[in-house]
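Hallway conversation turned thread

IA: we were arguing at lunch whether anyone had actually written out ImmA/IrrE family metallo-endopeptidase end to end. Turns out nobody had. So, for the record, here is the sequence (398 residues) and right after it the structure tokens. Reply here if something looks off.
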Amino acid sequence: MSTEVIQANKNWLVWARESVNYDKKTVAQKMRIKEETLDNWEKTGQLKYNDIIKLSKIYHIAPHLFFNANDPVYEKPFADFRTVKNKKVKSSSKIVFELRNAKARRETLLDIEEDDEDFIIPDFKLKDCNVNTIDEAIEAINNFVRLNTARRKNFTTDDWIIQIEKLGILVFQFYEIPPEDLRGYVIYYDKLPIIGINHQESDNAKKFTLFHELAHILLKKEGLSNFYSLNIKDYTEVKCNAIAGEILIPSTVIKQEVENRNVENFTDEKLIKELSKKYGVSNEVIVRKFLNENFITKKEYEKFKEKLNKFIFDSPKTESKRPPRVKKELTPEEINENKIQGDRRIARKTITKNGEYYINSLIYAYMNDIITDLDFARNLDVSLRVVKFIIQIMLKED
């Protein structure tokens, strides 16, 4: 069967490629075939089963979809607030796969709830909030996550994620997409909406992105965000940035700092760094607050925008000063210990990537025989060995 030419639905072959924003040339290169061969497959639907398996892996879909008798339905394009140099950009395949995977994880939890009457997904507490102004948004968020000075200064991103998950929101972190391409996203549902944030950013930058996306949820505006500039024209992004900034450091606090310090130069990097360190926020938040309060005027911003954007958004590139490792012969015990430590690292990364609520839900389903250990591993795309460490870490077992 693997070498026999079989008939697939040609429309699903086209849909599978277009849905992940691959052109024919890219897929042909991944398949190591001529572009004309792929073009013929998509026109006739005739290809070998082995090729269908390879395509399904490239497109991250189940092979049986290619044999669906019904034609595919193209989804409405996902809202995209991202710009690069003030121009709209196309979503990469990595972004499409991240969104698809996020939706699949949510569906997993809905399936668990359907299969077990004792597993109840918490209500989305912000569902009925109707806000129009920044002040109304701040008040709504404050009512649910209890903002205060100590939390603003001391809470890490992980601390805030736990609080936001309690609102009935899934929070995922993604690793493989550069922040300039995507800092965060929201997929909105009245039940179990999703926030995604980029793990590559610093902790303070992630906090800003997290609350920016929470603002999107509060406004019921799903979409992709990068806001990798201080000069943003989209009203929704401007509003969400203002809400995130006000959550992390209120304008009253900034005004008091300016008065106490008798600040004259608001583009001074030393001043910005001091305030960001004092209040546990990114440099970006401080500069945005200066802009919002008109401490930096539009005229001044035009003069200093290149300096400010470079200072805030360009990651310093440092060369590693570690000496080259000298390879040595490892004992069987050392090899085994390295494997264990490697599995532990993967387990911790998997927990961070998926969020504690999602992981704890899978553990519940596993412990109650709703899913098997293989289901657990497949849902997280890890080995059975890593599953063991994930459970140990979450249950705080030795």
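OS: looked through it. The radius of gyration is 24 Å.
IA: good, adding that to the notes. DSSP finds 18 helices and eight strands in the chain.
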